[in-house]
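Annual report, structural modelling task.

Input specification for the adenosine-5'-monophosphate-propyl ester complex:
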Amino acid sequence: MSNKIQTLSGYIYEYQRSVQDPEHFWSRVADSFFWHKRWDKVVEWNFEEPRVEWFKNAKFNITENILERHLFIMGDKPAIIWEPNDPDEPHVTLTYQQLHDEVCRFANAMKAQGIQKGDRVIIYIPMVPEAAIAMLACARIGAVHSVVFAGFSANSLSDRINDCQAKMVITSDGNFRGSKKIDVKSVVDEALETTSSIEKVIVLKRTGQEIDMKDGRDIWWHDVIEGMSKVNKAELMDAEDMLFILYTSGSTGKPKGVVHTCGGYMVYTAYSFQNVFQYNHGDVYWCTADVGWITGHSYIVYGPLLCGATTLMFEGVPTFPDPGRFWAICDKHQVNQFYTAPTAIRALQAYGTGPLEPYKLNSLRVIGSVGEPINEEAWHWYHDHVGKGRCPIVDTWWQTETGGILISPIAGVTPTKPSYATLPMPGIQPVILDNDGKELTGNSVEGNLCIKYPWPSMLRTTYGDHERCRQTYFSSFKGYYFTGDGVKRDEDGYYRILGRVDDVINVSGHRMGTAEVENAINEHPKVIESAVVGYPHDIKGQGIYAYVICDMEGRTEENLKAEIRETVNKIIGPIAKPDKIQIVPGLPKTRSGKIMRRILRKIATGETSSLGDTSTLLNPEVVEAIIEGAF
Ligand code: PRX
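The model returned the following structure:
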């Protein structure tokens, strides 16, 4: 691809062009892809309905742009390097040719199992190359994939299956994670007890553990591809056909199915990958995310592979067999670009620099951060000890809904500043609005982060509920996409993300709706009411603090807290387990019965001297009782 920005003046020039004439800008970027039929119109949009269409009526298949487009000159180049959980197990390399063959075989197998264009397919699988193969095979035949993070519970999985009425689940027997072997298939079995749309389950053998296989429904991956051809004619897709659904938390209880479409997502993920990370032919790029999150979709699978990059996938965890594992992998595979989350950096920082000492890390050129604000201390540690002071940090701000990175330095081009995402990517027009919707122009301002012009990889709808999409993202500030984040633009025009301004908490870079956690807590039979807030946590960024009103009869406080944690674990998954639970006599409420979370947040943070006016509360006395119980 030839759209690479290499200098700061080049960035400024590209940015200006992208804003002055977005259609011309994006059509030039899109021209480097392979289309069977070109678009009639680059973009059509209004943020009222909302309706956003990019590259209208263009026909193509995203996998031809990943596979066929690269085979001729790069067939032997590694596409995926897979590093297993256990360092003694050999790693696996799949060249572009091999990836092509595996995707085609699996695509043919899925078709043979009755999957057709438009069908929804759930992928609930650990970090193995087959996860990427399954995603691409779906895209190849026009099926819509919805990857569910394999740490989610049976209940979360069945909710997602039911919401999108999926026909197939692709999964594994189990999962290796650090020193643990984790059940995967049995979670699927449990989820399928409360769903009725699934016809087939394809099971990859990974751990070899004993599992149940249901006759007529469950088939092994290795059996299903047996005898399948390596030739598959890609389904012709419209640019606006659905590529995938990815569920994410919002401020209300039910996860939203964020919908991304084929054309714009392809153009933007490739463009942003190439520029942000400054990938050069022959480099090895590694993003430590899980494919179950948007980061894994856009920057392990689609973005890198669209650029013909070598993308590394890691099955394990940063601390197994020891806290030097990330660095061992960087040296072993001579990683050039390394992309991780602040929570991982902070967790490793806690071990000091000892675990880094045996490693050279001299192949690294760019190091990245994503998922949550990176605090200055972690930024400096990452910069000095991992990047050895010579690798630019790309602090990339974006969301499941944005599909790709919107605000970030371009590595080596944009001067960085600790904990700043710096400047918008070309084509991205951020604005800061005050709570009344007035745009705050100029520098040194702070407010709600909105985007005023569409970009190719933005969400199109929330699956099966377009009104929810409108309400959530396009109704708070008329005519704008609202991100839910607070932001500051400093005196240099640099953006610093301040965190969520809605009821979403960010735990270790994982988004969690407070209402979602509350609903799970309330499922415990002894719980009367609960309120959940975030509070600063040294490693996780934010922790989950739950205030719970309970019927204590027959339980000790400790028992009850353990049971509540287990309830949340069962309903959502281990990532949503509250870090702190406080049993309270009541919750502070307004006269209209709304819980005053502002007060609960302050108490959780220990800022009890600045609670503000509590006299308007229905039950001001409860605040004192909560403060007393908190310490
Ligand atoms: O609050 C922002 C935070 O993560 C949210 C999006 O979460 P999710 O959809 O799970 O996607 C995470 C990976 C793209 C945002 O609304 N966030 C993401 N990146 C950053 C960030 N906060 C600060 N700095 C970042 N670089």
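The two ends are 58 Å apart (CA to CA).
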